[in-house]
Amino acid sequence: MVLEVRPHRTKRYSGKKKKTQTIGIPEVPSEPCLLLCPKTHFLGLLLRKTALRHVDVSSATQLYELQVAPDARSLPLIVADKQSRVFDISESTLNKWLKRLGELTGLQLSVTSYWLRRGAAEVVNTSSEISEAQQNLLLQHASASTYQKRYASDYFCHDLRSIGEGREQQYGIMRMASGQSRTIDLRRPVDLTDTQKAEAEADQDVQRHKQLWLQARALVRTKHGSFARGEGTELYREALKTRNSYHTARTRSHRKMKKHIRAQFDEEQPIQDVFRQVHGLPMSSSNHRKTLPIPQEQERAFSLIFRFAPSSEQEETDCRIQAVDAISRVGPASAARLRTVHSGQPHPTWMQAASQEKRGVILSPRQCLVCLVFGIRETPFPTDFSFIRHLRRRHPGDMQCPDPDCCEQLVGIDHIMNHMQHVHGA
């Protein structure tokens, strides 16, 4: 099975789109970690989006059992809706996630999506299997000079001494020295402490914008009785502008403080490490960060994609099938899950898997059946009022009971509430 990728939104020159190449990505035998396998993730996302529902394919086992017809040489896998997006996020969101992942990893510089392009360009440039013309086609450059000016690292990544003396180069050491992995330090601050946040909040510019916002809000309340009642007026719009200016100044101050703290760490920590070693003192270790509990389907997907490759070919195939199915069952965030549950569209794989795992559900008092089945919320609500308010806000329309052993059609909020209480025990 070969995954074929063709870039869509690429560079333009003089208003015309540049030519793009189709890239084939085959499976790597005995791949050490499925985390780096694009085909595993792509197939999991396809099944998660039910992109193959028109051919009744709902599991990775069915995909791997497909055969090419005797009179044909290939079997294209065509999705149901070619215009739908498998992973619909903006570039700014992607860069935000990558930056956060880079900070958690301990990298010194901010990680962006352009890092991936620069890394791919370096791999292509150093490969003896790819010609200069093919490199320019892949990177959509007019000539190799663009790579030299914009992409080539300032750090020369070859062992010049070994080359001059006719010895074998130490590729591993030079790659480590020229790469960003050398900057990884898990002790580098990731988030501001409460004291540092308070110091950032006390910034003069932040306090000035805060006072303007409080004054504008008080003016709207004085004239209209409450801030919400002033919506649509010019005074309300001006107050919103001052509020946005306050939040912008606050965010800017926090970023400035965080940048200062990280720069201070990079300057002082190496000195402390050398000093402690010289005097026989123990090295300081990273602070253990608190981790929030994750849904069971996410935990299973993580364990499978980080699993080492089995030795036999059949075991490796079974491992890939399990990883693809696990990824397809990972649901989105809570708000997106609620939208999907009440969208009226065909249920994606993660919803089908979640409902099949919860049969004959008996609820605790004030526990929401829909949220429990689809992994949105498991804890009961503290009061009857909060439970009823949740049902009215989150599940106001008609729906089918998500319990596979029940499947009763529920019409209206009163029917939903009575069904949860009298049939499932809420």
Overall description:
The two termini are 48 Å apart. The mean pLDDT is 84. This protein is mainly alpha-helical and 426 residues long. A hairpin with a 2-residue loop joins strand 2 and strand 3. Helix 1 packs across helix 13 and helix 12 packs antiparallel against helix 13. It folds into 4 domains: 63 residues, no CATH class; 93 residues, no CATH class; 75 residues; 89 residues, no CATH class. The strands form 3 sheets. It has a two-stranded antiparallel sheet. The protein has a two-stranded antiparallel ribbon with strand order 2-3. The chain contains 18 helices and 6 strands.
CA radius of gyration is 28 Å
Helix content class: 40-55%
Task: Based on Cα principal axes, name the global outline.
Answer: globular
Count of beta strands? 6
Largest sheet: 2 strands, antiparallel
Mean pLDDT level: 84
Q: H/E series, N to C?
A: EEEEHHHHHHHHHHHHHHHHHEEH
**Structural class of the helices, strands and pairings?**
mainly alpha
Give the terminus-to-terminus CA distance: 48 Å
Q: List low-confidence stretches.
A: none
The share of residues in extended strands comes to under 5%
Strand order of the largest sheet: 1-4
Helix count equals 18
Write down the domain tally: 4
Domain C2H2-type: 401-424
Pfam families: DUF3435
Keywords: DNA recombination
InterPro entries: DNA_brk_join_enz (IPR011010), DUF3435 (IPR021842), Integrase-like_cat_sf (IPR013762), Znf_C2H2_type (IPR013087)
